[in-house]
Amino acid sequence: MTTITTDYYVRAVDLSDAAAVEAKLQALVHAKLDSVEALEAWLKRELECTLAIREVLSGHTIDFYRDTSSEAKKQIHMHDQTVIQPLLLKYGAELDKKFCECPYTKELDDGKYGQMKKVRATGLELFREENIPLQVKEQELVANYNELIGGLTAKWEGEDKPYPYVVAQMDSPDRTVREAAWRSVQEARKSIKPKVSAMMDELVALRHQIAVNAGFENYRDYVFREKNREYSVEDCYSFHNAVERHVIPAWDRLARQLQGVLGVDAYRPWDVTPCTLSKAPFETVHQLMDGVEKMLYATDSYFGDKFVHMRERGLLDLESRSGKAPGGFCDFLGYSKNTFVFANFSPSFFALIALLHEMGHAINGYLQVRDEYEWTDLRSEVAELYSHGMELLCLDKLGEFYRDEQSLKIAQREELHRSLNMLIGPLSGDLFQHWLYTNPNHTAEERDAKYLEILKRFGGHPVDYSGLETEASSAWIDSIHFIGYPFYNIEYAMSELGALQLLESYRKNPGEAIANYKRGASTDFNQSIAKIYEDTGVHFDFSDEAVLRVAKFAESVIEALG
Fold first, then answer.
1. What count of other Cβ atoms lies within 10 Å of the Cβ of residue 93?
2. CA distance linking residue 338 with residue 297, whole number of Å
3. Which part of the chain is the Peptidase M3A/M3B catalytic domain (predicted)?
4. 297 is a domain residue
5. CA dist 205 to 123, 202, 439, Å?
6. How many whole angstroms separate alpha carbon 21 and alpha carbon 9?
7. Per-residue DSSP letters for 296-339?
8. Could you tell me where the DSSP H helices lie in 422-540?
9. CA spacing 20 to 30 A to 536: which of 162, 168, 196, 481?
10. For the chain, how many structural domains are there in total?
């Protein structure tokens, strides 16, 4: 039986003692701020307190995700969500008010504190006390979803297997096996679909009410303000259209080529996986970690050192097991200045790429650690640049897992195929959410129909779904983003444009590209997204011209691999 360690984070605060937590927050609220120096000292104390609390919150969440079957871990997590988070929301607003109304705030250097000023002003503007119980209920539903899908199994060869295991079988080069796995996954989804649909109904209603309470017409508009997005709703729609014009045709051409390679008359849903690879790149988690360690060292010694640091300190949980929440993520443990990578994928090409992706986030986190004041706003448009970028910087190192030249080319082609898809799939998810939250009174049937319509317009454009429309329309229930991280989709596509530019640079001058990556990942998050991209040697540009140029580059590299 697997021993799940819980000593990877610092318990600097006892969250079970809510009164003590509240006393710490009250002390900050009542502190005297009579000079710029006093304000800066207060900000440091506030940061230390916040990082300590949030590290324990993160640790408890990770503990629960690692073992959703544990009632004790679930209760600790739910205590955090129902008792501690409301305190943080309440006192967070009071602290924002104290900061924004302090006469010395305007004297703080914008180069060091500018982004924080903007974020805190927005938080104060949007705060409504009546939204606290709604936000608590929202997190309860997210926890229930993770518990439900974490325990999901699927039938395989007459046995109940963990859901990720059966998903991994869809990569098989044997089309009969792929189809059997795909249909087993659909049956597993079907078993929980009513519950997840009911959760989504409730989440949409809750989020709509949160937005209305804050004075917005819909949750979409509320989120754009909450995220302080540096682009508009109209910019998003323009991006959708540019990808449809320039990337979908390339996606269709590649699909026809793949269909020819597979020798199939119809390109079906079970043909869209990395099924041109002969087998999974590893069998055990140790093999995965050994190979990725070598890949990272071959790319840059700092990358390899940080991976070893995490591996030795129990900051990686990568094995698939029953009761573990699905998917993968990297969490920043700000108090101890560490990062934790969680992944739940059975041996597969995607599991390998997912680990490289999350290590990009981890490296970004470590490069953000500073000795001086280090408040950060981890905007996803920036964070995802370094995760996608790490995948592509390691593209030429896949030989650690694919030893012969032909297998290596196929693996590289699959990764580039994934990169091109990351310009498409996230926009499909983004457009789906625009519709969800600007039409909050929709029915479950209308939601499924809209998902299928958008899927066929984007990533599923070349796929034949004949007779499988019902199954395809419910695929959204697999995405934790729709449930737990609303409107966290388009950032993947924006950052993939930057990552492909980074690959283009790397192919010309590897040393310069890696230096740019590390410089950009180190840039103070108080800078604009465009400035951070510029420091990375790429452009934050998702115009029609930029999309066309990057799509042509990606397609040309894929075609060059044969």
1. 18
2. 19
3. 169-509
4. no
5. 22, 5, 10
6. 18
7. HHHH-HHHHHHHHHHHHTT-EE----TTPPSEEEEEEETTTTEE
8. 425-438, 444-457, 469-473, 480-484, 490-508, 510-522, 529-535
9. 481
10. 1
Say what the pTM is. 0.94
Name which of 356, 363, 186 is nearest 288 in CA terms.
Answer: 356
- List, in order, residues 6 or more apart from 155 with CB less than 8 Å away: 161, 166, 184, 187, 188
Q: Indicate whether 257 belongs to any domain.
A: no
Residue 460 forms part of a structural domain:
no
Residue 3 CB burial class (10 angstroms; 0-12, 13-18, ≥19): exposed
3-class SS string, 75-94? HHHHHHHHHHHHHHHHHHHH
Residue 501 domain flag: no
pLDDT along the chain (562 residues), means of 10: 77 97 98 97 95 96 94 95 95 97 95 90 96 95 91 94 93 96 97 97 98 98 96 97 95 92 94 92 97 98 98 95 89 94 94 97 93 74 97 98 96 95 95 98 98 95 96 95 95 97 98 98 90 97 96 93 82
Amino acid at 263: G
CA distance linking residue 340 with residue 60, whole number of Å: 12
Tokens 């439900």 belong to: 148
Q: Indicate the DSSP class of residue 214.
A: T
Q: Is the dihedral of CA 86, 90, 96, 98 positive or negative?
A: negative
Per the structure, the complete domain to which residue 121 belongs is given by 18-127
